[in-house]
Every structure is written in structure tokens, then in C-alpha cells.
Amino acid sequence: MSLTGGNRNDVTQLLPLLDKIPAVAGRVGRPRRRSDALLADRGYDHDKYRRLLWQRGIRPVIAERGQPHGSGLGIFRYVVERTISWLHGFRRLRIRWERRDDIHEAFLGLAVCLITHRHVQRLC
Question: For residue range 42-67, what is the model confidence (pLDDT) as tens digits?
Fold first, then answer.
């Protein structure tokens, strides 16, 4: 994971993010290094990025600008929005006060552990 400033455009970090996806274990054989498809909102709707994704063998599923809502992507994006909302429940993560990246990432790791612990407690 790499931290960037809050004033950076998300689409500029798309390709570095795809490069950092770890191998996914599961089925027998060589582990997968890339996903089948990328789901994104209208902020990523540009032919350049669609073309780059196709070149990497990733099918872009990107909502188009100017089109009405109802593409069905919201069902999958809700998981991401909900997770970010849970992380914003921790005041230290809502606004980044730490200057050092390693401290911020440590608080992020602690928050993920606490969120996971809460969900496991509900199952027991």
C-alpha cells in the first residue's frame, strides 16, 4: 500500500495500485497476479485507462459519465464505502494528524484488527 496526499486525483494512482496487488492463492497451480475485472465509478471513465486495463488483461467495468445511475455497480461499491465508513469511526484515521506514514499505517492496521474482532465477536 502507498499513501498519497489527500489532494491527489485517484485515477493517477490506478496503475501503481494494480501493480501492488499480491498473488492470490487458492486453486492448484500458478497463483493469480491480476483480477478479471475492475469495478470503478465515473471518476475513472477515460479511454486511456480503459485501454491500459485491456492491455493488462483486465476487463474495465466503469460507470460512464452522462449516463443515468442504475448500472448495478453500487451493489459492489457499497462494500468499499461501508469499510471506509467503519475506518472513519476512528478519529485518528478520519483526519490524518501524523506526519509519518509508518505511524498512520500502524493506526490503520489497529483499526482493521478492531473491526475484525468486533465482527468475529458477533459470530460467537
Answer: 778 888 889 999 998 889 888 777 77
Q: ∠ CA(17), CA(1), CA(98), 5° rounding?
A: 130
Angle between helices 101-123 and 74-87 (to 10 degrees): 110
Q: How far apart are CA 43 and CA 11, in angstroms?
A: 7
Q: Quick one: CA torsion of 87, 106, 1, 81, rounded to 10 degrees?
A: 0
pLDDT tens track for 78-92: 777 788 888 888 888
Number of residues that make up the chain:
124
Instruction: Report residue 22 as a C-alpha cell.
Output: 499480491
Cβ neighbours, 10 Å, residue 93: 18
What is the C-alpha separation between 86 and 119, in angstroms, rounded? 12
Q: What residue ranges do the domains of the chain occupy?
A: 1-66
Q: Are 91 and 79 spatial neighbours (Cβ–Cβ below 8 Å)?
A: no
71 CB burial (10 A radius; 0-12, 13-18, 19+): middle
